[in-house]
């Protein structure tokens, strides 16, 4: 059983107090959350990351994997506009696939609901940078919104664009799909055999020949899926110039000001990204007003693509610059000391028709204590 150490608890209390001092309203969230909400947001994939249990009265529940979703739900139900919140408490995530990481740990967080999006982005990042400055962490920023805009601007079918959007947060699957849609990777042999079989007769006849229907999918759903597979197989590849620009965007890594210049350079060839690049430029101006040197601030267009799937704009993280004392893990193998980002779409999903731009972030106090040489 994991024990949260006194040092981690003390760091959490200190960070929580500092965030309250900004005027943020302290909030709490139940440790047991309805699983239905997370399943609706992320699908069955969330079961691989969260601890799901059954309550005889409340149904399927999940141990709180983070605070953002319940805070957004509470705010959209009765929150002010604008509003700032802070919280502290344990979260629970399955992390066996990531090596020796704790499955229960403290989070301290800060969430901002404010319609002045560039200023709010800069506010949260600058606040975290100030609180963590004594640790000499390395910052990294990104913008999921630019990538999503580039996908939306592709000259391909709505179904293919939807598939790419859905897998933005699964980089390996996304790259495999893009390679296939761009004609850079052949169809797997099994998919080719399946397509040949589907072309051999009508879907109804093939289902009849297959025997009794087994499973939860209806006949109509199966027929729709077969039609989608055949239509996709007949779709022309994404044009090579468009695909090349998207590959270029996926690999973009540079100081933020230089990244902006690069994006402005490719914008005429990818006009769909223009509004997202305008927001990026406005955010950099707001960051500079908060004393952040955007000429040296690292930016990666793909940053944030392995987090929970609600970020849809600015993303950031703060990392240890050196390996753990006496440990063998490199800094990049360690969890971020702090991370966050913008999640405007989530407020619309949970707001029952209402939405408000929102951005926030979390700090892991145990890692802060560890970097200070305290028993985390």
From TrEMBL:
Coiled coil: none annotated. Keywords: Glycosyltransferase, Transferase. It holds the Pfam family tRNA-synt_His. One of its GO terms (molecular function) is glycosyltransferase activity. Residues 12-250 form the Class II Histidinyl-tRNA synthetase (HisRS)-like catalytic core domain. It comes from the Bacteria. The keyword Transferase applies. One of its GO terms (cellular component) is cytoplasm. One of its GO terms (biological process) is histidyl-tRNA aminoacylation. L-histidine binds at residues 66-68, 93, 107, 111, 305, 310-311. The keyword Glycosyltransferase applies. NCBIfam families: PRK12295.1-5. This is ATP phosphoribosyltransferase regulatory subunit.
């Amino acid at each position: 059983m994991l024990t949260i150490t006194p040092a981690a608890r003390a760091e959490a209390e200190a960070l929580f107090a500092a965030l309250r001092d900004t005027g943020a309203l302290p909030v709490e969230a139940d440790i047991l959350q309805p699983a239905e909400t997370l399943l609706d947001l992320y699908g069955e994939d969330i079961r691989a990351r969260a601890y799901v249990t059954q309550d005889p009265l409340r149904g399927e529940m999940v141990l709180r994997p983070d605070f953002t979703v319940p805070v957004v739900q509470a705010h959209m139900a009765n929150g002010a506009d604008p509003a700032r919140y802070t919280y502290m408490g344990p979260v629970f995530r399955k992390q066996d696939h990531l090596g020796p990481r704790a499955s229960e740990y403290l989070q301290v967080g800060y969430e901002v609901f404010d319609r002045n999006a560039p200023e709010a982005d800069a506010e949260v990042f600058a606040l975290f940078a100030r609180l963590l400055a004594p640790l000499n962490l390395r910052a990294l920023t990104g913008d999921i919104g630019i990538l999503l805009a580039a996908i939306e601007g592709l000259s391909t079918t709505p179904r293919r664009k939807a598939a790419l959007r859905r897998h933005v947060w699964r980089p390996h699957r996304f790259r495999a799909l893009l390679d296939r849609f761009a004609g850079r990777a052949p169809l797997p042999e099994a998919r080719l055999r399946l397509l040949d079989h589907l072309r051999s007769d009508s879907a109804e006849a093939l289902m009849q020949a297959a025997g009794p229907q087994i499973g939860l999918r209806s006949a109509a759903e199966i027929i729709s899926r077969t039609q989608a597979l055949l239509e996709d197989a007949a779709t022309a590849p994404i044009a090579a110039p468009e695909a090349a620009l998207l590959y270029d965007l996926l690999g973009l890594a540079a100081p933020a000001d230089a990244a902006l210049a690069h994006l402005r350079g490719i914008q005429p060839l990818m006009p769909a990204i223009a509004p997202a690049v305008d927001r990026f430029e406005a955010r950099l101006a707001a960051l500079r007003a908060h004393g952040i040197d955007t000429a040296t601030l690292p930016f990666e267009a793909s940053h944030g693509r392995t987090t929970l799937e609600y970020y849809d704009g600015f993303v950031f993280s703060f990392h240890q610059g050196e390996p753990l004392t006496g440990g063998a893990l490199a800094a990049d193998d360690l969890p971020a000391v702090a991370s966050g980002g913008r999640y405007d779409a989530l407020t619309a999903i949970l707001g029952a028709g209402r939405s408000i731009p929102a951005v926030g972030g979390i700090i892991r106090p145990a890692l802060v204590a560890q970097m200070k040489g305290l028993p985390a």
